[in-house]
Amino acid sequence: MTSCSMVSLCSLRVASCGIASPAAQKLNTGISRLSFPKDFIFGTSSAAAQYEGAAAEGGRKPSIWDHWCTLPDKIDDGSNPSITMDQYHRYKEDVRLLSDLGVNAYRFSISWTRLFPDGRVNPEGLAYYNSLINSLLEHGIKPFITIYHWDLPQALQESMGGWTNKEIVDKYVEFADICFAAFGDRVKHWITFNEPCHSLKYCYAEGIWPPGVKSDTEVYIAGHNTLLAHAAAVKRYREKYQAKQGGKIGISLDGFWYEPVYQIPQDVAASYRALDFNLGWFLSPVVYGYYPETMRANVGGRLPHFTEEEARNLMGSIDFLGLNYYTSMYVKDSPSDIWQPAGYNTDMRAKTLFDVDGIPIGPKAYETSWLSIVPWGFYKLLNYIKKEYNNPTIFVTENGFNQVHAPYKDSMDDNERIQYLTGHYTNMAQAIRDGADVQGHFIWSFLDCWEWKSGYTNHFGLFYVDRNTQDRLPKKSAYWVKNFLKPDRGLILPSATPPLVQPLGKNVALAPAQAVQAF
Ligand code: BGC
């Protein structure tokens, strides 16, 4: 890390000197820390494969992603996760930065192949996570741990076929048990899985993520085994650890909001199917113990069944829902898809769109980005979950904005990220006032990091990372967040503030006055 004395941009650089607050931060957004409950969690989010690096150090063994990146043309820029943000070596500095940012929580995941490679606990891995946890706690930052964020040991993929083999359930529980036993005295929030829908779709339906399977059936089998592993780990935690450790356990699911193109029964029904296939696939079993009816109807015999005991274990198996929200899409009924080959995407019989007749659902983060900025969709999704799933406690475990990769000087003035966060905080505050039990929010992401198939082509960080020096350089959004989190700053949103931005486009139910700007 470059020392402060060596850089002219000391106010912009972060080293041991902390984050200075330039005048540019005097943004009056009308939303502040005070718009949220006093004990609200404000954190940033990360994942081991995207942050740790040190892939071949400290006794760590390869994960499916390490292996996948050795194959040709799998990653957009040919990169791999062997170094990434080098958090394995730099965690102390990173914790100081987090503390300086003012967050009170940090979400990270445990690398299975670092802590428990080859079915034995690796003392160096254990020491690393203990130090990271202790360091966070010393700075008043609560660790939120994701037990599995997509980095299965390659050895388990090769020896037993990974998530499509039911025996993976026991392997996962063994690993989770080690995490609870080793860290549960200090860790009070556990997340069993990150975004199984998103990852399994790519891994087992589209075949663009490891292990690269394209199947209309295996995606549902892998999902089923993931759910069984979740339920079994929660059962273990509740029976063996929860009473004495006093923590909570949940799962992080990806949720898009799906806005019907037209307020006609067919499109409205299509939007509910899309919500079911995306969020309900996992949320319905962990709340109610069964798959959504739309999935059972459309997938038929390819969707596995839960035994009565499995359903009992699944029902109510979350103390909280981790919700990852990035964007929304339009959706319309697509019955013709029944003539296309079966598969996750066609089973839904709904077509998703980023725009209707050239009118986008929200501004794109950048031209080729998958992310449209749709804060009102966040509000709608939170409300939908409140109504459909018995108002669970929610921690928004990921929410963030991406920029295309650009040199340092072109990346720092990230006003759009500030607008994105402002819009999402505003909508989240409104959803809370309207009764949603949201207790925390984590920005994806703390640092610019390695983005799976996208490699380093786009970035979500509050901090730019110079990959030659590993310097962490705060973007304008980092200053904004720091300022936002000061308890005495900003304005409180009056509770009478009219709700939120409504969708653009051809939604016939909307009065023209509601089609306002996106933030
Ligand atoms: C994942 C993260 C990822 C982020 C941005 C989420 O789906 O959980 O690992 O980096 O999206 O693409």
Automatic annotation (TrEMBL):
Lineage: Eukaryota, Viridiplantae, Streptophyta, Embryophyta, Tracheophyta
E.C. number(s) listed in UniProt: 3.2.1.21
Molecular functions (GO terms): beta-glucosidase activity
Classification via PANTHER family: GLYCOSYL HYDROLASE, LP05116P
Family (UniProt): Belongs to the glycosyl hydrolase 1 family.
InterPro entries: GH, Glyco_hydro_1, Glyco_hydro_1_AS
Keyword Hydrolase: yes
Keyword Lipid metabolism: no
Active site: 398 (nucleophile)
Domain of life: Eukaryota
Protein name stated in the entry: beta-glucosidase
Signal sequence bounds: 1-17
